Amino acid sequence: MAAAWQDVVRDAVAVREAAAVAVDAALLAGVLMRTGEQPNASDVVNYAPFTLLPSAVPRALFEQAYAVQQDFNLLVDAVSQNKEFLEQTLASTIKVDDFTARLFRIYTQVLEEGLAQTVVLGINRSDYMFDCGLDGTAALRQIEINTIAASFGGLTSRTTDVHRLVLKVLGKSEEASQLLPNNPAKGLALGIAKAWELYGSQRAVVMFLVEEVQRNIFDQRCVENELWNRNIRVVRKRFQDVFEQGSLDASRRLYMDGQEVAVVYYREGYMPQIYNEQNWEARLLLERSRAVKCPDIATQLAGTKKVQQELSRPGTLEKLLPGHPEAIARIRATFAGLYSLDEGEEGDRIAATAIADPDRFVLKPQREGGGNNLYGEELREVLEKIKDSPERTSYILMDKIKPQPALNYLLRAHSPLQASKCISELGIFGVYVRQGQELVLNQAPGHLLRTKAIEHADGGVAAGVAVLDTPYLV
Ligand code: ADP
Ligand code: MG
């Protein structure tokens, strides 16, 4: 699997030439990011980091990941509607994790008041790595499922053309023609448009809830522009704007300075640091409103690491998806080993195992966005410190996935061109719309491949570690 471009990857002259073409092609195609210096202006922008070469991905695993996506949509939707399961699963976590507790409080509050909207829109991305077994065969293993602000569906729609060109420059036209078309942004917009339509007001807008620091705006613009093309109005607002301009009428319709909002699409709101008291108030206002929330707070909670770990317990999927044995089998086949650190014997045992052999595991808190997990020595130290305290329960443990590395070049502005040993993470986008009890849309509209150098244990393009890539199926 690693050997796809063996002949060219060491040819320094060819690589240098191809890299120059690649960077210009990325700029032309709109694979863009704002700069760290000017994150909120588009006067000077740069290309988003990407690989020179597409990475080899085993075709069977790629197809497996697509085949299970609609099942994952069903599962996330089922979890989000199961109050008892969310309550039980998160009970230990919310005792020690303030952020999850605060989200959970809003969840309880809106349920008590009664939901003002029966239309649900889910956009998620299920991420996988290819675990290399002792015999050299690779297996698809889910890393996590992102149920809020799953990004890069826009930029990844544009990287395929860049890689196609690079392969041609390197004399590989035949391989270039095999790269699959991929346009998740279009599919995400389709889901948002469907929810907007079901909301049922021509005048109402779609509101992108965006960050204070908006480096990744071009990725979002890809989705926005798809909506404009459908004659759906889009506004971009921050939590602060919602606090200042947002209000509900008697039937809990959401207005921003008099403008009715049909759909709130969160590209923000998953990190504790961004919530001051005003932003929490804004979040509550949005959740109480009649606007379709993507995701609603229940679906955000369904994406926590703790829920992921509980889903892997024998019998849980059967309870959540009764009558879907085939979907359950497909879902379960992608699970890595996941372990609860709740207080008690089971948690004690796995904590001791991980302290003795930290390289077998990843220690994960209830956080999103990259850079939060613990590995190796650090995992051992932290676990050693918290193993007898309730704080332990704010984490879960997961088997560490060990993919086979391949050589590639990571193209990043202002960075030298050098070969790196890399591993990749495949994400499949999911989108679904439910009206009451009827699922009216359930799709897997595209994929994302991200690749990082093996020196980095953790990932994330926005976190500055991984870069955009395109799968080359082998
Ligand atoms: P986040 O919500 O921060 O994105 P993830 O669970 O996706 O959290 O972990 C972040 C990164 O850490 C992943 O992109 C991957 O590179 C690495 N990682 C996470 N879990 C594992 C694992 N079980 N084995 C190997 N690497 C992992
Ligand atoms: Mg992740």
The total strand number stands at 20
Q: What ligand species are in this complex? A: adenosine-5'-diphosphate, magnesium ion
Dominant shape: globular
* Rg, nearest Å: 22 Å
N-end to C-end Cα span: 7 Å
Tally of separate domains: 2
Please identify the structural class as seen in this structure.
alpha+beta
What can be said about the biggest beta sheet?
A: 7 strands, antiparallel
Secondary structure tally, helices: 18
- As residue ranges, the low-confidence spans are none
Share of residues in strands: 15-25%
> Which oligomeric form is depicted?
single chain
Give the gist of this structure.
The chain is of the alpha+beta class and 474 residues long. It is built from 18 helices and 20 strands.
Question: What is the strand and helix layout of this fold?
Answer:
Layout: H1 6-9, H2 12-29, E1 32-34, E2 45-47, E3 50-51, E4 55-57, H3 59-67, H4 69-80, H5 83-96, H6 98-113, E5 119-132, E6 138-146, H7 156-169, H8 173-176, H9 184-199, E7 205-209, H10 217-229, E8 234-237, H11 239-245, E9 246-248, E10 254-256, E11 259-266, H12 277-288, E12 292-294, H13 297-302, H14 305-311, H15 316-320, H16 325-332, E13 338-340, H17 345-356, E14 361-365, H18 376-386, E15 395-399, E16 406-411, E17 419-435, E18 438-453, E19 467-469, E20 471-473
Helix pairs in contact: 2-7, 5-6, 6-12, 9-10, 11-12, 17-18
Adenosine-5'-diphosphate binds at residues 127, 143-144, 336, 362, 364, 368-370, 372-373, 398-401, 425, 458-460.
